[in-house]
Amino acid sequence: MIKVGLLGCGTVGGGVYNILTTKKEDIERKLGEEIQIKRILVNEKNKKRKYDVDASLLTENYKEIIEDPEIQLVVELIGGETPTLGYIKEAINHHKNIVTANKLILAKYGREIFQLAKNNNVKVYYEGSVGGGIPIIKTLKESMIANKIGRIYGILNGTTNYILTQMTEKSIDFEDALKKAQSLGYAESDPYFDVSGLDCAYKISILSSLAFESFIDVNSIYVEGIDKIEREDIEIAEELGYTIKLLAIGKRYEDKMLDIRVHPTFIPKSNPLSKINGVYNVVQIHGDVVGDIMIYGQGAGEMPTASAVVADIMEAAKSIKYHIENEYSIGRLNGLKLIGTDEIENSFYIRLRVNDIPGVFAKIAKAFGDNEVSIASVIQKHRLNPVVPIFLLTHPIEEKKMKKAIDSLKELDDVIEIKNIIRVEDFNEKF
Ligand SMILES: NC(=O)C1=CN([C@@H]2O[C@H](COP(=O)(O)OP(=O)(O)OC[C@H]3O[C@@H](n4cnc5c(N)ncnc54)[C@H](OP(=O)(O)O)[C@@H]3O)[C@@H](O)[C@H]2O)C=CC1
Ligand SMILES: N[C@@H](CC=O)C(=O)O
């Protein structure tokens, strides 16, 4: 019998408890071993819970789990950095294997945690940390092991994808869509992490560390969230044949450089990523042997995430049962440098408000240099006003050149305000 301690019994922890108790026999049959939850750490023992959790298992004292010699596996589903990082490290020092869905901890402290686990000859499993129910960690670590990965595209945050879909399809406001995502259990306890793009940055740093075998410092990733996206941007994107998604990008250039970033992106409607809606996430990977693969599923929520966590628990139990040694972990190679976004060439969508005077487009186009702007248009419904919104779509241009052009736009008297700038991904690069 493998005895497990759960840290947290909220959205995901509750789902894990439910699966481990209702599918107990099934799990034992598949594993050839019983899994027993011995203790569950929560913040408040007397809180009303969704599932009928055996009250005798609940504790508010983490030491009852971490210092229990019978518990071989600790499943961390509290989230955040404090007190979680300390609990994980203490558990490893007590020779417990770890399962976690905590992307923040892995992205920020992964190297330290994996080293500590190696020193203590225990393992850390983290399938639930990226893409909810999508088996993406296993895909990268095992199924694609023969490949050199050239590129990863991911829609990796269920909350923001749900919000953008609601804003696009149902014309629901940002705030209302966020409230719905929270009530469905998709959002982080502080939804700032979702909306700001940080959650997505943690996830792409974990995937990139695995794919490019090079520990990625999450603080050096360019991150932009969805908080500046307005309905107008979504409508224009639709008219132009694009959908706006919060896209995570990881690209390898010539074994020397990595381009890793997270930002709202215009995705052509012809690309399958544009069709991934609601809480669904997707990861598209290019490997030199297999070519492109795409894997998608629900990226957040109780049961999809619990599915990934229970898979990890079962794998950890198997490893404990058969005494399988700790193998490699993320970040084996060094030396790949991150490129700053200034060096990267993209097309850009730019929305501004200008005085509606003859010749205003010509002045704006001049700021970009000849031939850099492919489409410039007035948003027609505002045409009778003296100040009108317009948008531009540039040809591919280096970001630093685009910024220079924006600076010169700001100096034009007829440009009242730059409302939004969004990158357009063309998906045509070859790896
Ligand atoms: N929700 C989702 O869709 C997904 C979440 N994740 C990750 O899974 C983890 C858990 O998320 P989620 O289940 O949504 O979080 P919840 O907020 O729903 O649950 C957190 C749990 O931790 C307990 N807890 C919080 N603080 C403490 C503390 N200081 N000491 C002891 N227990 C504490 C809470 O106790 P109590 O119940 O008493 O309040 C609760 O049971 C996070 O790392 C998150 O990023 C990953 C993928 C998807
Ligand atoms: N808040 C996250 C939860 C899963 O990681 C999301 O919305 O994707």
UniProtKB/TrEMBL annotation:
List the Gene Ontology MF annotations in alphabetical order. Answer: homoserine dehydrogenase activity; NADP binding
- Under which name does UniProt file this protein? Homoserine dehydrogenase
Please write the reaction equations for the catalytic activity of this protein. L-homoserine + NADP(+) = L-aspartate 4-semialdehyde + NADPH + H(+)
Alphabetically, which GO biological process terms does the record hold? methionine biosynthetic process; threonine biosynthetic process
Q: Where is the active site?
A: 203
Q: Provide the residue positions that the database annotates as binding NADP(+).
A: 7-14
Entry keyword set: Amino-acid biosynthesis, Methionine biosynthesis, NADP, Oxidoreductase, Threonine biosynthesis
> Where does this protein hold NADPH?
103
Tell me the InterPro entries matching this sequence: ACT-like_dom_sf (IPR045865), ACT_dom (IPR002912), Asp/hSer_DH_NAD-bd (IPR005106), HDH (IPR016204), HDH_cat (IPR001342), HDH_CS (IPR019811), NAD(P)-bd_dom_sf (IPR036291)
Q: Which residue ranges run through the membrane?
A: none
Which family does this protein fall into?
Belongs to the homoserine dehydrogenase family.
Q: Give the source species.
A: Petrotoga mexicana DSM 14811
E.C. number: 1.1.1.3
